[in-house]
Amino acid sequence: MYSQLVSVPLTLLGLLEREPSHGYDLKRDYDAFFGRGKQLPFGQVYATLGRLARDGKIVPGAAEPGDGPDRRRYAITEAGRDEVDTWLAEAVEPEPHLQTVLFAKVTLALMLGKPAEAYLDTQRAAHIRRMQELTEIKRTGPLVDVLLADHALFHLEADLRWIDLTSARLAELAEAVGTR
Amino acid sequence: MSTPVVLRGCLLEARDIVKSFGQTLALRGASVAVGQGEILAIMGPSGSGKSTLLHCLAGIFQPDRGEVWFDGHRLDTLSEAERTRLRRTAFGFVFQFGQLVPELTAADNIALPLLLNRTSRKQAYKTAGTWLDRLGLGDKGGRRTGELSGGEAQRVAVARALALAPKVVFADEPTGSLDSLAGEKVMDLMTGLARQQGATVVVVTHDARVASYADRVVMVRDGRVSADLGTGGAPRSPAAAAASASASARAVR
Amino acid sequence: MIRLGLQLTLHSGREAFVRLLVTAAAVAVGVALLLGVLAEFHAFQANASQPCWSCTRGAPVPSALPARGELWNDSVDFYQGQTITRLDVAALGSGAPVPAGIARLPAPGEYYASPALAALLRAVPAAELGDRFPGRLAGTIGQPALNGTNDLVVYIGYTPAALKAVPGTSLVTSIATAPPPEVFTSFFRYAFLVGVLAVLFPMLVLISTATRLAADRREERFAALRLVGGTPADIRVIASVEAMVSAFLGAAGGTVIFLLVRPALAGAALIGTPYFESDLTPTAWGYLAMLAGVPVAAAVAALISLRKVQISPLGASRRTTPKPPTFWRLAPLMLGVALFVVGLSATSRDSIGAPAYPGLLITMAGLVIAGPWLTAQAARLFGGVARGSSALLASRRLADNPKAAFRSVTGLAPAGTAIPQLGHDYYTLMAIGLVAAVAVITVTLPLLNRMTAPNTVRFE
Lengths: 180, 253, 460
Description:
The structure holds three protein chains of three kinds. Chain A has helices at about 10-20, 25-35, 40-55, 80-90, 100-110, 115-140, 145-180, and strands at about 20, 60, 75. Chain A is mainly alpha-helical. Chain A has two domains: about 10-90, Winged helix-like DNA-binding domain superfamily/Winged helix DNA-binding domain (Arc Repressor Mutant, subunit A), CATH 1.10.10.10; about 100-180. The longest helix of chain A is centred in the last third of the chain and has 37 residues, at about 145-180. In chain A, about 25% of the residues are buried. Chain C is of the alpha/beta class. The chains are: A mainly alpha, B alpha/beta, C alpha/beta. Chains in contact: A-B, B-C.
């Protein structure tokens, strides 16, 4: 299970552990590997780099002759390395996403005497449809798309398992809801 | 390459099938229709009767009540000999454990239904060789299937099913004992090659990712087909597809 | 389809091939022994049905010698513990009957000797032996007159006048051609029958056990074949071919073993002198019975074991506990023992043991029928006193399916009853050898089976 938000400071720090780089290069790499179609603003990059430098996790190199004021090459420090190690070794908090929404819908449906099973079926159908789309993409798309699709598929599968289990528990749930 | 799914009429149909084994009632009036060239997935929890439905559709079992129609003729009233003949001429099978003969080589296993149909040995082994290549097993033809990895063995099973140019391929949890990548390869090959040949595929599975290879998914619950989860997976332009993928990935967060 | 069967039998990998060879070896042992029994029986029969020339009864010699017939004086001589059968003969006219084994009667001053005697005469100084026979050696006596290769027989020619004076001479006008009266022969016939059954039973069980040992994997194979469109008839053909190949290999091998061992067999004589090797043959029928009959029997056994199994395309059906064996299984055994005891008491000097044999045969069959019931009872008793989980497991398994457990011992049971009955050394040795072979093979075949199982993972 992963956190859905990729932490920008830690990612840049990780990239810097690879090799010292300019801010420009860092942004370019971030966009390519972690951006998912969204570009990281330069301002955010330099602001983040500034913060990291202030916290002592990276150090700026000497300004190179003939370059602009922002063309400095940053390098990671020992503290920065430790930070990256800790972050990588740490387990990420499992994040419930749409389960919360669906749970609310199912609970309401049971309270109001509406067909909860049917809502679950509808959701299941929607999930399956999306999974079919994703599988089609895997057949024809480039490798990066395949990996993304895989990722999404596993999540959708997990959701479906939760839907199946909830489906099986409806009687229990109805009772629990009824007594509230 | 994907061809548009054209439902040229119903090839295989089960109407109100009832089937019990001893005391257990496995199917209580299940009905499903499969169009020619369609890839249908039958999903459901264990004990729902989905495998029994598949076996009835393939003529392996005769239902206690109800009808099974194949290609415009009644299938369930055919004699055992006739239904056996169908299994070597029109129906291919890929089951969870392949049901290959482990002591025989991959080529032997693929050639088996052809040999049982009295095809000449030369022709049968030539066909087997072609299919071994198509499934990326060109160098494994002489290996005994008991020695192959799970993924390779299942690919042999797929080759065996497709080598007889079947009208329908019946699969029951084909990736059940495989890891994700091996399973993906098997499903890719099976559905892709079947589509190329214009074969119809009926897959029974509890795994949604397997079901997502199908054109249409139905649910079986308590011995009845309870939901048609609809058609999806229609081909799109790569850009639209990519956009959709990102949208799915994002929405899932 | 036969070709497919051959392919499945011969090209199923090293392990299956080894299993085939082991089965063939087991069959070879049984076939060799059976051929030996049949050969011995044939030799014994040939011997027993030979014309008994020495049974010829003559008439007293009249004072006036007739012009036809001959004078006979047969006696028995000894040399160093060996018996020499001696016939002094004098022809009374032309056309006198010629005894077996020679072309014409020895003339006075001539004698014919059996090959063994001739060899002895050459080896021994004349003073000790050769001088007893007046005249010169004119030729050898042929096989029809002899009981065995070591027989010492001599026909000596005399003048009628000389022989008439010797006491004990009789006038013979025709030579007996009937075989000797049966005194022991029916005894030996029964002994042979018991011997054959003692070999046949275990061999049949061996064949069916070996067939059944591959059964669990066989069922999977046949299920796979059924799934891809093999009809039940196809399965039957393939199963028969599988059985017949190993059985035929075994029969051929057994025949070769028998042919190699045959000279040694001749020495194991029932009648005191070694058989003639030419008599010691199972005859063409015997060879045919083995080379054709054994494969056919194996095929039949395979088909019978198939009948009980419904091969569905989906493979192994769920196992249900078979019905326990009933008490009625004990009936044939009790009947057999009763008959045996009655038969024994009816044995008289004339019918040496013969009335007891039917009882013995029924007892052997009864043991096989009662076996499962006895196993079940034993299992129950054993379970009662069993300590430890493995003992308890074993007794429960035995009690659950005693028929299957008894199967592997089925062949030993009748062989076990047969051994004490066969007093003769050769047969005891043979029966012991066969029991040992059966025991070794029924123990090693399952072990071999387990060791050579292909590495397929099965989830039940």
